[in-house]
Amino acid sequence: MAPFDLENIQGDIWPGLPKRQEVFLFFRIADDASQRQKFKEYLRNLIPDITTAKAVLDARARIREEKDKTAADDEASKLLPWSGVNIAFSSTGLAALGKHIMNTKVNMEEIRRDPAKWRELKKNQIRGDLFDKGMFDDLVYEGWDDPQELRREYKKDPETKQRQIDGVVFVASSTQKQLEKAVGLVKEKLHMRDIDDDIDEDAACKLILTRKGKARPRQLKGKEHFGFQDGISQPQLEGLDPPPKGEKEPKAVPPGLILIGHDGDALKQPAWTKDGSFMVFRDLQQLVPEFDQFLEDNAHASRSTEKSPASANKLGALIMGRWRNGTPVDLNPHDDNDPSLYRSNNFNYTPVGSHDRCPFAAHIRKMRPRADLDDDEAVIIRRGIAYGPEVSEEEKRNKKTSKERGWASNHHFPSNKYDAVGLSGPGIDGIAGQRLAHHPPRNMGLPDGKKPSEARLSLGAWVTHKGGEYFFTPSLKALREDLSSAPLQAKL
């Protein structure tokens, strides 16, 4: 296996930026050719501030050292001042920088007939129709996003009919002060103007949208707003992560499933994309009081919940696939009281034809079916962070969301489960599954001791998909050699 250049890989691809606070700065590159040239020059100045995988490993080592030191001294550990910066581009952003040709704007057949143009295209063009068309066209025109629910910045510009987001800078930090300092540095180096600011001769990009996230306080740290422990199960990359220890844990996957140009990368992307990775940004709003009320109202939805002393919590566990502390229901469908199971990944849903312990439509089973698919069939690394305030007392009383906070839609996936759940199929993912107004009602099958099971749970909608975009996160080498430019020298 080829060695990894950890100073060439952006740190949020692997191993992930440490974050208590995070800001996403979505920007649009100017249309004028001279301003685009300036953006490439400004981007060159930002490259020394991009946080690499090696820098993240070094930061994590310092954090562990501080924790060990304070634990030995019986003191509370201090937050080390730290910040990290990464950058990614949509297909329109790469096109603005001269490294992508939008399939929608050219006659591809004409290019194929010209050998020189075809060679140049193959040398530069990232493969992937979804990346090319962007999330709006993919998930509104061909998917199940409701355009009425999307933030306007994720939609096309109403006047130009063009996508608005060319790139995103994400800044993570341990403290608010460090975050503000790093965000200010990014804006200064890229000469980034706010959307309503007048464009001057130095401007090369505009800030379209800012999204802010932060870790939840104290004992809720690491949990998303519904109260479930987040980020427990991540794919382990061969050669980078420690190999899984449990007999039933998912095996380590080839690094090329995440990192372009490495073992397992089947798409044969252009050479300049090596050590880069694709990033999907999804903006998800969570309706927490409504979800909690649903669990209370439906606590006795099946025999498997009505016998539980914590029936509402158990129903939530069946919908998620883990209890709120993290215990997989496949390992313990009865309670969440064994700390040794809180972060366990040593399960695989076998026998795969049964959902007596974990429903087929449980969120984590839909997202990664484990024994139902090959280990390297489909993997993603999740880097989410909660946004928005904690649920207020007023929201708890009214059982209705008034403030924004955030965090698979196929009824018949996993397939061939009709003997266990009947002809209605496993059902929709109870957390992230989408339905438009003309679709069949949302529901999922629950275990009830019968075969096939008869219990069906009608589901509400507690996650609103607010939009997002598909991005490519380039390597440091690609940023230096392919996407940025040294300042042009004035002629005397």
What does this structure look like?
- The chain has 492 residues and is α+β, with helices and mostly antiparallel strands.
- It has two domains: 21-214 and 469-483, no CATH class; 283-461, no CATH class.
- It is 26% helix and 13% strand.
- It is built from 14 helices and nine strands.
- A five-stranded mixed β-sheet has the order 2-3-1-5-4. A two-stranded antiparallel sheet has the order 6-9.
- Helix 8 (288-297) packs across helix 10.
- The longest helix has 20 residues, at 53-72.
- The protein is globular.
- Residues 403-418 have low confidence and may be disordered.
- Keywords: Heme, Iron, Metal-binding, Oxidoreductase, Peroxidase.
Number of domains: 2
The helix count comes to: 14
- Shape call: globular
* Overall pLDDT confidence: 85
Helix content: 25-40%
Instruction: Write the element-wise H/E pattern from the N-terminal end onward.
Output: EHHEHHHHEHEEEHHHHHHEEEH
Gyration radius over CA: 24 Å
Low-confidence stretches: 403-418
Number of strands: 9
Order of strands across the biggest sheet? 2-3-1-5-4
Largest sheet: 5 strands, mixed
Q: Helix- and strand-based class?
A: alpha+beta
- Beta percentage is 5-15%
- N/C terminus separation: 51 Å
Family: Belongs to the DyP-type peroxidase family.
Protein name: Dye-decolorizing peroxidase msp1
Biased composition (Basic and acidic residues): 394-406
Pfam families: DyP_N (PF21105)
Task: Spell out the blueprint of helices and strands.
Blueprint (H helix, E strand, L loop, with lengths): L20 E9 L3 H14 L6 H20 L10 E7 L1 H6 L11 H5 L2 H10 L4 H13 L25 E7 L2 H15 L1 E3 L10 E10 L62 E10 L1 H10 L5 H4 L4 H10 L42 H5 L25 H6 L19 H4 L21 E3 L10 E3 L4 E11 L2 H8 L9
Parallel strand pairs: 4-5
Antiparallel strand pairs: 1-3, 1-5, 2-3, 6-9, 7-8
Keywords: Heme, Iron, Metal-binding, Oxidoreductase, Peroxidase
GO molecular function: heme binding; metal ion binding; peroxidase activity
GO cellular component, one term: cytosol
